[in-house]
Amino acid sequence: LAEGLQIAGYGVIGNGGEVQQLGKPHFCPLEALPNLNAQTINDFRNEHLLNPSGMVIAGAGIGHDELVLLSNEFFSEISGGGNPNEANRTVPSTYTGGEFRFQSPTIDGFTRVALAFELGGWHSDDLVPTCVLQTLLGGGNSFSAGGPGKGMYSRLYREVLNQYYWAERAEAFTSFHSESGLLGISGSSIPNKSRDMTRVLAEHFYKLAHFYVTDEELDRARNMLKCNVLTQLESRLVLFEDIGRQILTYGKREDTASMCRKIDEVTKDDIREIARRVIAKPPTLSTVGDDVSKVPSHEEIASWMK
């Protein structure tokens, strides 16, 4: 489902054009398997994993001086192979919108649908408000053991999973890249209700763009997002991964106090403005299941947003 969103959202531009970087499949297509051999894997290793210009050494629970000594001992002799600029080569992708359909037998018989729109990437000012919006929408499976922190009071739980008996799953998601990103909602239902599911997902985007979220929803989403971030960073494993990712993306690491401050600064106007801007762009639809014929077309969904 997520693979289809990327393929459809960043489709080929023009007749005979090449597949865009963000539109390439994450998983190796069967027809490309013959191209994999020891040499191609070794070349990839040299260009991406042994390239000092694209390497960050991060540590948590260790003194800085000790980390520097260990880094010099084990990594100083790495000179890399191939073009040193290859690892950082990025060809900007242009969002197109579109649809991806894959009809195939599933274990549970459900049809899965994901509806997404483009927004800014990792360097956009929309990043933090979008994360708050994703938390506000929340969602999950129709069955949950409950308990604190499960998001049972998120909007998709209250207004989709608790309202429609045929809704098996509904959950908000984001996908960020350097130059672009996707904000979407995915859901699953029996095939005969897949059109209704798609309509409900679209209605939630429309509702966000035309009506303010409540103060209670916004406060809950901000607090939950801060709680999730701080809880995750209690793990040393997550902490040093976060250091590495931020250094590679921004060239610096932002501390938790700064992140929490940005989360607290998100307003209802920010949420509505993001929703208004994203639905002004073409939607991206991805659907997978035993029967996807009941899922409306990309063009029909686009007409709902006008």
What does this structure look like?
With about 300 residues, this protein is an alpha+beta fold. It contains eleven helices and six strands. Strand 4 and strand 5 form a beta hairpin. It starts with a helix and ends with a helix. It has helices spanning about 1-10, 40-50, 65-75, 125-135, 155-160, 195-210, 215-230, 235-250, 255-265, 270-280, 300-305; strands spanning about 100-105, 110-120, 140, 170-175, 180-190, 285-290. The chain has a six-stranded mixed beta sheet with strand order 1-6-2-5-4-3, with helices on both faces. It is globular and about 60 Å long. The mean pLDDT is about 90.
In short:
The chain is α+β, with helices and mostly antiparallel strands.
